[in-house]
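For the sake of transparency, this paper describes our internal protein records without simplification. Because each token names a local backbone shape, the row as a whole describes the fold. One such record is reproduced below, unchanged from the form in which we store it.
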Amino acid sequence: MTIQRLLVANRGEIARRVIATCRRLGIETVAVHSDADAGMPFVAEADVAVRLPGNAPADTYLRADLVIEAARRTGADAVHPGYGFLSENADFARAVGAAGLTWVGPTPESMEAMGSKVEAKQIMRAAGVPTLEAPEQPTEADLPLLVKASAGGGGRGMRVVRDLSALEREIKAAQAEATSAFGDGTVFVEPYVERSRHVEVQVVGDRFGRVVMLGERDCSLQRRHQKVVEEAPAPDLAAEVAAELHEAARKAAEAIGYVGAGTVEFLYDPATERFFFLEMNTRLQVEHPVTEAVFGVDLVELQLRVAEGTALDERTDAPRGHAIEARIYAEDPAADYQPQSGRLTAFEVPGDWTFEQPGRGVRVDAGFGAGDEVSTHYDAMLAKVVAWAPTRAEAARMLATALRRARIHGVTTNRDQLVDVLADPAFLAGEVSTALLSDGTHGQLDRTSQQRWSAIAAAVALAEHDRHARTVQQGIPVAWRNVVSQPQRTLLAVAGREEPLVVEWFGTRDGYGVDGATVLAAGPDAVTLEMDGLATTFAVAVTAGAVDVDSALGHVRLAPVPRFTDPADAVASGSLLAPMPGTVVKVAVADGEDVAAGDVVLVLEAMKMQHSVTAPSAGTVTVNVTTGQQVAAGEVLAVVEGADA
């Protein structure tokens, strides 16, 4: 059969990715969207869009009945699930088939076989694929251990245990998070391999029993057990180890009669050159573009061809060059990767949808554009940026440059950390591991100088904004004084600093005077400074309550500090503020209850992750919220009387 109209049962960048391939192949597309996503790019790019009332995933993208009804109403004859949501739901796949639609994915039986990590390990063990095993009664000698959710992934329901006395507590915490994220609280325990690498193999199977290998990817750079940087091929991996990985992946796929695109993930121990089965993702992976780059394939197209019944050709070609992908997340690495939300006032990343140049290029798969709202209902990923070049070093350089030149305003992201990691000597040497970001010594360059010069540019641009807003005396220089007694002072707050940056400057007939810098040109949107004989132009964007500064030094987001604090903004001592917008999923104490320092008062959920809010010190708690309540960032959730100010 030939697919004519395909419904994409997903959102964001993966929906746009599938739509792009369908458009190239002449396949019409249908998008489904929540109320929060009504204005998103993927909705506009589809030929037809169907509203799913509500915002929460459980009310929208996880409603299999609504998705199938949307396909029926729009005349779609196939469904592509993307990744996440219903993509690995065997019951949904069966329902799609029962409705007379073509399912673009593996068989429900394969999905069920790999859906439980506990059962998947048993199947892999029988197929001769190495697996990690934890003792039934672990001792201190078995530490560290890893508690993992049997259903799902993405770092949710996962806890590292380094103290045996904490094992029971961490199991309960993992069960709660897994239940919330996947509807299944089953967890298991396995050994935790320190400084291991996460290496996975891309497989594609057809309906005739052939399984094609498309090389391996390294996905070791992670935070909170979620991937951040991925690359293909895996660096510093012996050819014989790579061959063994590919063969193990083939055994895994053949053991379940796999059809479609899938990924077999392994934990690799560089010290012993041994690897162990982690899981098999029965769907397209977020990081699939790096494989597409080095093998010159379109994995979405292969998925569609397999779904239409086309036989695959065996491939023996080697990867061409090297590709690295970085995920841009709406999160704050300096605040323990807390999810961020808000409106993107600017979102410009240099790149293309495809690799236009032969042998090299930068590709951007984005789910958002300027003006879009980043909500707390869904995953925090904004975009993936992929660089492809003849060598790994060149790909890293191209990717770092693209990220550095990107203009992303309105929401805090991990962009700076990505730039730092891509220039880190350990990363460039191929010394990647799952601990690289967590040890506190990588991806954290000193930005004091960058912040200082950006603050000067921001102060001058703010003064220029005031000058352009004048309705009288426009010919008088900014901040002009007949008798100068002291400089003007502009205070600018920046994330990660307790005290604001202070810029002292003078307004003269000849322009601005600032210690340590010469203002060569000034305007409300751009300022050129000369420092130590070097001139740099800073692009400045002023919005309500924020100033975004972009330059060759990178991006800095600043907030003007008012001279006087509004009494309405003051909060009582001991107030527990919401670190981000989210939903209260648990209130752990009763109103009026006594708590000790560090006790969990309540738990917030935002962007699929749970965050505990704890008491700063001992005292009596007054709770201001209830379970299920939506809260805004900075909202007072509770007050602990007697807590230190």
The chain has a mean pLDDT of 91. The first strand starts at residue 5 and ends at 8.
